Amino acid sequence: MFPRTNDNNITTDTILNTIRELYRKKQKSYQSYQRSSYKDILLIGRRNIGKTTLKHILEDPCSITDESSLISRTPSISFHQTFQLSNSNLFLQIVETSIPFERNNDEHLWNINQFCIENRIERFNLICFCRSSNSSFNNGDIEIVNKLVKHFGEQICSQLCLIITHCESKDNEECNRLRNELINDHYFKEIIPYFRQGIHFTGSINRDDFNRKYIDVVSGQFETVYVYRQNLIQLIQNTRDSFRIQPKIEQQQQQQQQQTNHDHRQQKKGCCEIL
Q1: Residues 171 and 271 grouped into a single domain
Q2: Are 40 and 95 in contact (CB under 8 A)?
Q3: Does residue 6 belong to any structural domain of this protein?
């Protein structure tokens, strides 16, 4: 843990210049030789857990989070125009959606289909279910993941990952502890197999530490955030397949067919048991 040193001669501009210099040196030693690639990402989760911040961090790891607010200003579904990662041939297009946990959310899941069709987004290379490390998982989270998989079908699992936000002050040992807690949790392990793209972490420079001019703390947070970001970039680059978003009617027909096939299998199984 970095000490919370505060020098009255240090300004926020000084801190920002310091972390940008750190970033410049890291990028100088990192060069992407891959061909240009375009990836579509879907971020899903509660409001105010860091989804928009994650987008900003992917774009620029030196970003400072906005002042904290109890009210979300982000629409329930928003579209971020394609942007290129610095010093990289990777281009990202991100759709961000906040699923309501407190009321019926089936309609919202259909709204995702409609939004994507209207904006000509046909596929997602990665689907990220985001959750903050500042609060524990509960039955609402498990219910949402189950509904997500039921709505889009189990084929979504091949592109699905879990991202834990607000981890800028956690080291590898703490992250591994959190990962193991989830994997071994009696209730959460029910949905762990859905996250075939794994469990990952992210964070951002804390605005309060930045405003208080804790330069050592902020520098340490940047180092941590940079590593998280590099891991996520590698994950995104390595995704080869994609999940297709279907129009509502087409998906409903597929769901009905899957249910019919399931019922036939159950009936056949029952007949065999009688015999």
Answers
A1: no
A2: yes
A3: no
Domain identity same for 71 and 139: yes
Number of structural domains the chain divides into: 2
* pLDDT tens figures, 91-141: 999 999 987 765 566 788 888 999 998 999 999 999 999 999 988 888 888
Which one, of 75, 109, 91, lies nearest residue 41 by Cα? Answer: 91
Measured CA to CA, the distance from residue 154 to residue 196 in angstroms comes to 11
Non-local CB neighbours of 157 within 8 Å, separated by 6+ positions: 149, 193, 194, 195, 196
Range of the domain at 266: 249-275
Question: How far is 92 from 58, CA to CA, in rounded Å?
Answer: 9
Of 69, 27, 50, 208, nearest to 131 by C-alpha is 50
Per-residue pLDDT of 188-205, as tens digits, reads 989 999 999 999 999 999
Number of residues assigned to the chain: 275
Kindly provide the b/e burial profile for residues 37-57, where b requires at least 16 CB atoms within 10 angstroms of the residue's own CB. eebbbbbbbbebbbbbbbbbb
Together in a domain, 175 and 256: no
* CATH number of the domain bearing residue 114: 3.40.50.300
Q: How many other β-carbons are positioned within 10 Å of the β-carbon of residue 85?
A: 17
Q: Is 191 a domain residue? A: yes
Q: What is the C-alpha to C-alpha distance for residues 165 and 169, in angstroms, rounded to an integer?
A: 11
| Torsion of the alpha carbons at 69, 94, 20 and 210, rounded to the nearest 10 | 10
- Considering the domain boundaries, does residue 155 fall inside one? yes
Report the 10 Å Cβ neighbour count for 159. Answer: 21
